[in-house]
Amino acid sequence: DSGVTQTPKHLITATGQRVTLRCSPRSGDLSVYWYQQSLDQGLQFLIQYYNGEERAKGNILERFSAQQFPDLHSELNLSSLELGDSALYFCASSAPGTENTEAFFGQGTRLTVV
Amino acid sequence: GENVEQHPSTLSVQEGDSAVIKCTYSDSASNYFPWYKQELGKGPQLIIDIRSNVGEKKDQRIAVTLNKTAKHFSLHITETQPEDSAVYFCAASPYGGSQGNLIFGKGTKLSVKP
């Protein structure tokens, strides 16, 4: 158990809908990262938050957004869903500082868009 | 931006043999190179990492080597066991201290036959 909790584990929704994925980082970790894993694209970095502020952006679509709350949990919002958004979405967290910043991954949320 | 290539995509070995997975990266600014193991239904788990000021690192049956000049790094697993069967990902971080923003290779599915 990595200590990173993601809910829900599975989500099935229709095209055009909006969903919210939730992540609770490890205790004490200030950084939260979101990754998308699909068969054709592999693991792709989406976005990073650090202590409530957006720190870095990767290949995140405009239809997707994220935020990190004062209690440090994070939510990834996916809207106007398309079939191609079906994927595993992982959240990871890491401790503050430049040393020992291993990223711990959660179990993921499997999103299926039908 | 950074691009990470990983080979082979699948690897099958007999129990007790060694396995080698190779990765190349494009951004000479990358300075952190972790390797993750992903078992079915789980999130990626860090198994070993190396920083750019080190050429080799070993942890029991696992070792990683880094050649900065050639921009490639490799994972070596000796005396493989069936429980080593999983998908292995290499990654590179081009963001210095923010080392969770990882660019991943496409993964290698390792099968260890008893």
What is this structure's SSE topology?
The complex is a heterodimer of chains A (114) and B (114).
Chain A: E1 5-7, E2 10-13, E3 19-24, E4 31-38, E5 42-50, E6 53-57, E7 64-68, E8 74-78, E9 87-94, E10 104-105, E11 109-113
Chain B: E1 4-7, E2 10-14, E3 19-25, E4 32-38, E5 45-51, E6 56-59, E7 62-67, E8 72-77, E9 86-92, E10 103-104, E11 108-113
Parallel strand pairs in B: 2-11
Antiparallel strand pairs in B: 1-3, 3-8, 4-5, 4-9, 6-7, 7-8, 9-10, 9-11
Can you tell me about this structure?
The complex is a heterodimer of chains A (114) and B (114). Chain A is mainly β and 114 residues long. Chain A has no helices and eleven strands. In chain A, the strands form two sheets. In chain A, strands 2, 4, 5, 6, 9, 10 and 11 form a seven-stranded mixed β-sheet that branches. In chain A, strands 1-3-8-7 form a four-stranded antiparallel β-sheet, with no helix packed on it. Chain B has no helices and eleven strands. Chain B has strands at residues 4-7, 10-14, 19-25, 32-38, 45-51, 56-59, 62-67, 72-77, 86-92, 103-104, 108-113. In chain B, a hairpin with a 6-residue loop joins strand 4 (32-38) and strand 5 (45-51). Chain A binds chain B through residues 2, 4, 31, 33, 42-45, 48, 50, 55-56, 58, 90, 92-94, 97-98, 101-108, and chain B through 34, 36, 41-46, 49, 89, 91, 95-107.
